[in-house]
């Protein structure tokens, strides 16, 4: 038995070793004996290799020899057989995106783009701050790029309104918050309304009401994020930036974490949480703060997830908190050992929410945590408060 050596293009190092041994010694059994391994190890390795190659469009024993393009996998094929002589007369090949390969390609692109970004220079930290305190500026489901018609939804929303409210909210929240050494810019996901050229949700393909071009949304996101970080650096000694993955902005959240890390790598006062896993944690003394958008695990499931993912932090903490968004409503549940809080959004509802009767008030909070005592204060600011304060000024 001789295997097609074109399979080597799809083989791992171990599979390559096995395939060459099979061809040299004439059978998988003889190859296994020569290599000193179990026969089943060789059988399974060759089966995996053939399956991987077939998914890429190469299975010569089944007359498949056309390799899939980079980033795609063979999803299936339809054969047209001549009923008289049984010969194959025509074949249709159907391809689908290779999600793993696409992520590798996107990650490489993000890293390459980050290499060209200008770096932010270090700045002097403000003085007279409390080392015991941490301010968490909590923002979720802001949906930059969403379009809402006030007559239908109760409030207008577009990119201009969103940028204006975001900057005004942070100005007021920072001014009202205690003088703590540490701040967390806690963006809990769905910061962008959609995730690519098409205005659809990335996993379900639901059509979305969009205000602007995707590149313009990215431009506003970059501009506002840099301004917010600069404002926080003027108030706090150390700024931790969390750009959580949401169900609307899976890939753009990845890109945002990477370019922020590159841009602030020379500024020791800024820490970017680059975790590719959509669960995040920060330990502030004996206070544990955890985060998840809420699209993959419900609020009731999060305590066990956080305990399993962050056991050292869980064990070191006396006070534990978990923050999520996704459903645009306030909800607080205290479990054994941890308080879970689901947050409202500042953003106006879109047509889907308004027509579906998903109604909630709009606000965002700043929480202050103490190293020893957990949460010690909070400030809730609504859009009405933001604009009334602006008019008063």
Give the neighbour order of strands across the main sheet. Answer: 6-5-4-3-12-13
Considering DSSP H and I runs of 4 or more, what fraction of the residues is helical?
25-40%
Q: Uncertain segments of ≥5 residues (pLDDT<50)?
A: none
Order of helices and strands, N to C? HHHEEHEHHEHEHEEEHHEEEHEEH
Structure keywords:
single chain, about 400 residues, alpha/beta, 6-stranded mixed sheet, 13 strands
3D structure, described in words:
The chain is an alpha/beta fold and 393 residues long. The chain is 36% helix and 22% strand. The chain has helices at residues 13-25, 28-35, 39-55, 99-115, 150-153, 159-176, 214-235, 250-263, 302-309, 311-316, 351-355, 383-392, and strands at 72-81, 88-97, 130-139, 180-187, 238-243, 270-272, 280-284, 287-291, 319-324, 331-335, 338-342, 364-370, 374-381. It has a six-stranded mixed β-sheet with strand order 6-5-4-3-12-13. Strands 7-8-9-11-10 form a five-stranded mixed β-sheet. Strands 1-2 form a two-stranded antiparallel ribbon. Helix 1 (13-25) packs across helix 2 (28-35) and helix 6 (159-176) crosses helix 12. It is elongated and about 85 Å long. The protein starts with 12 loop residues before the first helix and ends with a helix.
